[in-house]
Design goal:
The protein has about 350 residues and is α/β, with parallel strands linked by helices. About 65% of the residues lie in helices and about 5% in strands. The chain is built from 17 helices and 5 strands. Bound molecules: cobalamin (B12).
């Protein structure tokens, strides 16, 4: 499709801040800004410009235009359902082109601008693709369907104590907790995400659901304890900039169930602090969680630094960012990828026993 040279991608990345400022400014001074982004849209628009630049950087660096094509309908659906008009995309994309022409040398700009023109050409097609309201049916094991329905219903009522009760009553051993995570808590959160994407709920609900599921995980993970095991240490974290931490927490808990002593460092850990912690905790495994594709870029440097400093440490990666390209973590230097907390623990065991 397109082949972007590495130095061109790096130039885009280096100039990101200037590009974002230009597009922000252009849009804020646009006479129709209120119509373009809707009543509550200014803050969301600015965050979108940051995410956009980080996402395009990742696409250009890795030449993964398959992922760009796949993401466009989601972008149109999510932002349109939050009050953005379809014209916003055309106006903003043209502003990106102007910014790139202004701040990047001509040869560099000439490589990148066709990508933006291609997105613009797909505008009508993307609108059509985005207009189907998403209503995914999540695969839940038969045994868990009833628990899932009750749990989701209580989550949507904001009834945290009932959610904890449902979870605790359904889990008699460690294996049940793992199954509860993948069959109940995870699909419930995915459904919440889809409701947000369809414009049915606000980000406040995502926060509430996160708080309730966190309470549930705290209860469940304290039900079954393992002795501290100096021999098997795992560090679990979310890459810098990544705020989705529940999946990583489940991974940490599943590793604990498999006998690993785990340090779970939660969301968006600064790079240098992560390196210092690795030096003091001396893990056998570092598990990195990435949900947003635009956070794949910081992971590249992080993996390289760990492998340069401590080549014996095994790195596993996971999270929704890699669903469209499960081959990517290994291309970027990780030792393995898995798409759920269940398989994450199996992968960790396999990597260490073979080394
Ligand atoms: C709650 C939530 C938030 C919360 C997160 C709070 C927190 N402290 O965790 C808040 C409000 C902060 C948030 C913010 C945003 N979010 Co949000 N969020 C969600 C939501 C609803 C649930 C996330 C979750 O907990 N999922 C459940 C966990 C269990 O699933 P999981 O992460 O996939 O983890 C499993 C596996 O992937 C795997 N795994 C995970 N990590 C690892 C690591 C390793 C090493 C391994 C091996 C395996 C592994 O194991 C886990 C268990 O099986 C999702 C919906 C969704 N589909 O997930 C949207 C979602 C992820 N968010 C989305 C978006 C757009 C955003 C925002 C940009 C805007 C917004 N909505 O506010 C910001 C970006 C923030 C950022 N920079 O990170 C989109 C992303 C879409 C896309 N195409 O990329 C989603 C998909 C919603 C949607 N349907 O549109 N969000």
């Amino acid at each position: 499709m397109f082949v972007i040279s590495r130095n061109v991608a790096q130039e885009y990345q280096k100039n990101r801040t200037k590009l974002i400022e230009y597009v922000d400014d252009f849009m804020l001074n646009h006479p129709d800004i209120d119509k373009l982004v809707g009543a509550k849209g200014i803050d969301m628009m600015k965050i979108n410009h940051q995410n956009h630049a980080a996402f395009i950087s990742m696409i250009l660096l890795l030449n993964r235009f398959d992922s760009l094509a796949q993401s466009l309908p989601w972008v149109y659906r999510a932002y349109h359902n939050h009050g953005f008009s379809y014209d916003y995309f055309l106006v903003a994309l043209n502003a990106w082109i102007e910014a790139i022409s202004k701040y990047l040398e001509k040869d560099y700009a000439d490589e990148i601008i066709p990508v933006y023109k291609w997105i613009i050409e797909k505008h009508d097609e993307t609108i059509l693709k985005s207009q189907e309201e998403k209503n995914t049916i999540y695969l839940v094991d038969n045994k868990w369907i009833d628990v899932f329905e009750k749990f989701f219903d209580s989550l949507m009522k904001g009834d945290s104590f009932r959610c904890v009760d449902i979870a605790v009553k359904a889990c008699f051993e460690e294996k049940d907790v793992v199954e509860f995570y993948v069959n109940v808590a995870q699909p419930s959160l995915y459904k919440i995400g889809e409701l947000w994407e369809n414009g049915k709920i606000t980000v406040a609900w995502e926060h509430l659901a996160t708080a309730i599921v966190s309470k549930v995980i705290s209860h469940l993970s304290a039900l079954f304890r393992r002795p501290f095991n100096e021999e098997r240490r795992a560090l679990v974290l979310c890459i810098t900039g990544e705020y989705h931490q529940i999946g990583a927490w489940m991974v940490a808990n599943c590793l604990e169930f498999n006998g690993w002593t785990t340090n779970f460092l939660a969301d968006s850990l600064p790079f240098m602090d992560a390196m210092e912690h690795i030096a003091s905790f001396r893990p056998d495994i570092v598990a990195i969680s990435v949900t947003m594709q635009y956070n794949i870029t910081p992971m590249i440097d992080f993996i390289k630094k760990i492998k340069d400093d401590k080549p014996d440490i095994k790195i596993i990666a996971g999270g929704q960012a890699f669903r469209p390209f499960p081959d990517l973590p290994q291309i970027l230097g990780a030792d393995g990828y898995s798409d759920s907390c269940t398989s994450a623990a199996l992968l960790a065991d396999k990597l260490i026993s073979y080394s």
